[in-house]
Amino acid sequence: MLMQYLNSGVVEAGCDEAGRGCLAGPVYAAAVILPPNYKNDLLNDSKQLSEHQRDALRPIIERDALAWCVGVVSPEEIDHINILKASFLAMHRAIKGLKIEPQHLLIDGNRFTPYPGIPHTCIVKGDGKMMSIAAASILAKTHRDEYMCAIDKEFPQYGWSRNKGYPTKDHRAAIEQYGATVYHRKTFRLLDPQLPFE
Questions:
Q1: How far apart are the first and last CA of the chain?
Q2: How distant, in Å, are the alpha carbons of 5, 7, 113, 117, 167 from that of 105?
Q3: Could you give phi then psi for residue 94, rounded to 5 degrees?
Q4: Helix 131-152 × helix 51-64 angle, to 10°
Q5: pTM for the full predicted model
Q6: Residue among 87, 96, 34, 43 nearest 69 (CA)
Q7: Residue 192's pLDDT band (cuts 50, 70, 90)
Q8: Nearest to 141 by CA among 190, 70, 39
Protein backbone atom coordinates (compact mmCIF):
# COMPACT_ATOMS: atom_id res chain seq x y z
CA MET A 1 0.00 0.00 0.00
CA LEU A 2 1.47 3.34 -1.04
CA MET A 3 1.75 6.13 1.52
CA GLN A 4 0.19 9.44 0.64
CA TYR A 5 2.32 11.73 2.80
CA LEU A 6 5.66 11.77 4.49
CA ASN A 7 4.59 14.93 6.37
CA SER A 8 0.83 15.51 6.55
CA GLY A 9 -0.30 19.11 6.18
CA VAL A 10 2.71 19.93 3.99
CA VAL A 11 2.52 20.41 0.20
CA GLU A 12 4.74 17.60 -1.05
CA ALA A 13 5.88 16.97 -4.61
CA GLY A 14 7.05 13.52 -5.63
CA CYS A 15 9.91 13.39 -8.16
CA ASP A 16 11.25 10.57 -10.30
CA GLU A 17 13.21 10.14 -13.51
CA ALA A 18 13.13 7.78 -16.50
CA GLY A 19 15.80 6.80 -18.99
CA ARG A 20 18.92 7.03 -16.89
CA GLY A 21 20.33 3.72 -18.13
CA CYS A 22 19.54 4.27 -21.81
CA LEU A 23 22.07 4.56 -24.62
CA ALA A 24 19.90 6.97 -26.62
CA GLY A 25 17.42 9.74 -26.01
CA PRO A 26 17.01 12.35 -23.28
CA VAL A 27 16.54 11.68 -19.59
CA TYR A 28 13.07 12.70 -18.38
CA ALA A 29 11.85 13.55 -14.90
CA ALA A 30 8.46 14.45 -13.49
CA ALA A 31 7.28 16.28 -10.38
CA VAL A 32 3.72 15.71 -9.13
CA ILE A 33 1.64 17.27 -6.35
CA LEU A 34 -1.44 15.17 -5.61
CA PRO A 35 -4.57 16.45 -3.83
CA PRO A 36 -5.03 15.74 -0.10
CA ASN A 37 -6.51 12.30 0.64
CA TYR A 38 -6.08 11.26 -3.00
CA LYS A 39 -7.03 7.66 -3.79
CA ASN A 40 -6.18 5.60 -6.82
CA ASP A 41 -5.81 1.86 -6.28
CA LEU A 42 -4.07 1.37 -9.64
CA LEU A 43 -1.22 3.72 -8.80
CA ASN A 44 2.09 1.89 -8.39
CA ASP A 45 5.77 2.05 -9.34
CA SER A 46 5.78 2.41 -13.16
CA LYS A 47 8.11 -0.61 -13.47
CA GLN A 48 5.43 -2.80 -11.83
CA LEU A 49 2.79 -1.73 -14.36
CA SER A 50 2.26 -2.79 -17.94
CA GLU A 51 2.67 -0.26 -20.74
CA HIS A 52 -1.11 -0.31 -21.18
CA GLN A 53 -1.67 0.42 -17.46
CA ARG A 54 0.84 3.29 -17.50
CA ASP A 55 -0.74 4.81 -20.59
CA ALA A 56 -4.19 4.55 -18.97
CA LEU A 57 -2.99 6.17 -15.72
CA ARG A 58 -1.16 9.09 -17.33
CA PRO A 59 -4.24 11.19 -18.28
CA ILE A 60 -5.84 10.40 -14.91
CA ILE A 61 -2.78 11.64 -13.02
CA GLU A 62 -2.50 14.73 -15.24
CA ARG A 63 -6.20 15.50 -14.66
CA ASP A 64 -6.28 14.83 -10.91
CA ALA A 65 -2.93 16.31 -9.81
CA LEU A 66 -2.93 19.77 -8.23
CA ALA A 67 0.22 20.38 -10.26
CA TRP A 68 2.55 18.35 -12.46
CA CYS A 69 5.43 19.05 -14.81
CA VAL A 70 7.92 17.06 -16.87
CA GLY A 71 11.57 18.12 -17.23
CA VAL A 72 13.88 16.97 -20.04
CA VAL A 73 17.67 16.92 -20.42
CA SER A 74 19.06 16.24 -23.90
CA PRO A 75 21.73 13.67 -24.87
CA GLU A 76 24.15 16.55 -25.53
CA GLU A 77 23.64 17.89 -22.01
CA ILE A 78 24.00 14.38 -20.56
CA ASP A 79 27.35 13.99 -22.33
CA HIS A 80 28.45 17.39 -21.05
CA ILE A 81 27.57 17.05 -17.35
CA ASN A 82 27.15 13.22 -16.83
CA ILE A 83 23.97 11.20 -16.38
CA LEU A 84 23.64 11.56 -12.59
CA LYS A 85 23.78 15.36 -12.73
CA ALA A 86 21.49 15.27 -15.78
CA SER A 87 18.90 13.26 -13.83
CA PHE A 88 18.93 15.85 -11.05
CA LEU A 89 18.75 18.69 -13.59
CA ALA A 90 15.69 17.09 -15.21
CA MET A 91 14.06 16.93 -11.75
CA HIS A 92 14.96 20.58 -11.09
CA ARG A 93 13.36 21.58 -14.41
CA ALA A 94 10.21 19.63 -13.52
CA ILE A 95 10.03 21.23 -10.05
CA LYS A 96 10.58 24.70 -11.51
CA GLY A 97 7.68 24.17 -13.91
CA LEU A 98 5.11 23.34 -11.22
CA LYS A 99 2.30 25.89 -11.02
CA ILE A 100 2.22 25.41 -7.22
CA GLU A 101 5.45 25.68 -5.25
CA PRO A 102 5.87 22.61 -3.03
CA GLN A 103 7.02 22.92 0.59
CA HIS A 104 8.85 19.60 0.53
CA LEU A 105 10.26 17.31 -2.17
CA LEU A 106 10.14 13.52 -2.11
CA ILE A 107 12.96 12.24 -4.31
CA ASP A 108 13.17 8.68 -5.61
CA GLY A 109 16.65 7.32 -4.91
CA ASN A 110 19.44 7.92 -2.43
CA ARG A 111 20.99 11.17 -3.73
CA PHE A 112 19.86 14.56 -4.96
CA THR A 113 21.26 18.01 -5.61
CA PRO A 114 19.21 20.26 -3.29
CA TYR A 115 16.67 22.46 -5.01
CA PRO A 116 17.04 26.09 -3.86
CA GLY A 117 14.70 26.97 -1.01
CA ILE A 118 12.82 23.64 -0.78
CA PRO A 119 13.86 20.87 1.62
CA HIS A 120 13.87 17.30 0.32
CA THR A 121 13.89 13.70 1.48
CA CYS A 122 15.48 10.94 -0.60
CA ILE A 123 13.56 7.66 -0.49
CA VAL A 124 15.17 4.52 -1.91
CA LYS A 125 12.62 2.70 -4.10
CA GLY A 126 10.27 5.58 -3.33
CA ASP A 127 8.21 4.86 -6.44
CA GLY A 128 6.99 1.72 -4.66
CA LYS A 129 6.38 3.53 -1.34
CA MET A 130 4.98 7.03 -1.93
CA MET A 131 1.94 7.84 -4.08
CA SER A 132 3.31 11.11 -5.48
CA ILE A 133 6.63 9.49 -6.50
CA ALA A 134 4.74 6.63 -8.17
CA ALA A 135 2.67 9.20 -10.09
CA ALA A 136 5.88 11.02 -11.11
CA SER A 137 7.46 7.74 -12.26
CA ILE A 138 4.47 7.06 -14.53
CA LEU A 139 4.53 10.54 -16.09
CA ALA A 140 8.31 10.51 -16.63
CA LYS A 141 8.18 7.03 -18.20
CA THR A 142 5.16 7.61 -20.47
CA HIS A 143 6.34 11.01 -21.71
CA ARG A 144 9.77 9.59 -22.47
CA ASP A 145 8.38 6.47 -24.17
CA GLU A 146 6.18 8.67 -26.36
CA TYR A 147 9.25 10.68 -27.44
CA MET A 148 11.29 7.53 -28.18
CA CYS A 149 8.46 6.16 -30.34
CA ALA A 150 8.39 9.47 -32.24
CA ILE A 151 12.12 9.45 -33.03
CA ASP A 152 11.90 5.75 -33.91
CA LYS A 153 10.18 6.88 -37.12
CA GLU A 154 13.33 8.82 -38.01
CA PHE A 155 15.71 5.93 -37.24
CA PRO A 156 13.63 2.71 -37.33
CA GLN A 157 16.68 0.44 -37.53
CA TYR A 158 17.47 0.87 -33.80
CA GLY A 159 14.10 -0.44 -32.58
CA TRP A 160 13.46 2.46 -30.18
CA SER A 161 9.69 1.91 -30.23
CA ARG A 162 10.43 -1.47 -28.61
CA ASN A 163 13.59 -0.92 -26.53
CA LYS A 164 13.03 2.81 -25.74
CA GLY A 165 16.80 3.37 -26.05
CA TYR A 166 17.86 0.79 -23.45
CA PRO A 167 20.95 -1.33 -24.14
CA THR A 168 19.29 -4.43 -25.58
CA LYS A 169 21.23 -6.88 -27.71
CA ASP A 170 19.36 -5.74 -30.85
CA HIS A 171 20.00 -2.06 -30.08
CA ARG A 172 23.73 -2.63 -29.63
CA ALA A 173 23.87 -4.74 -32.81
CA ALA A 174 22.21 -1.88 -34.73
CA ILE A 175 24.76 0.62 -33.34
CA GLU A 176 27.56 -1.67 -34.50
CA GLN A 177 26.01 -1.97 -37.96
CA TYR A 178 24.80 1.62 -38.53
CA GLY A 179 26.86 3.70 -36.08
CA ALA A 180 25.57 6.22 -33.54
CA THR A 181 22.92 8.88 -34.21
CA VAL A 182 22.51 12.42 -32.88
CA TYR A 183 20.23 10.89 -30.23
CA HIS A 184 22.88 8.56 -28.82
CA ARG A 185 24.80 9.46 -25.68
CA LYS A 186 28.39 9.59 -26.86
CA THR A 187 29.91 9.22 -23.37
CA PHE A 188 28.11 5.90 -22.83
CA ARG A 189 29.58 2.53 -23.80
CA LEU A 190 27.45 2.07 -26.89
CA LEU A 191 28.88 -1.21 -28.11
CA ASP A 192 28.63 -4.47 -26.21
CA PRO A 193 31.92 -4.98 -24.35
CA GLN A 194 31.53 -8.72 -25.10
CA LEU A 195 31.75 -8.16 -28.84
CA PRO A 196 35.06 -9.28 -30.34
CA PHE A 197 37.22 -6.55 -31.87
CA GLU A 198 37.96 -6.84 -35.59
A1: 52
A2: 11, 11, 12, 11, 31
A3: -65, -45
A4: 120
A5: 0.94
A6: 96
A7: low
A8: 70
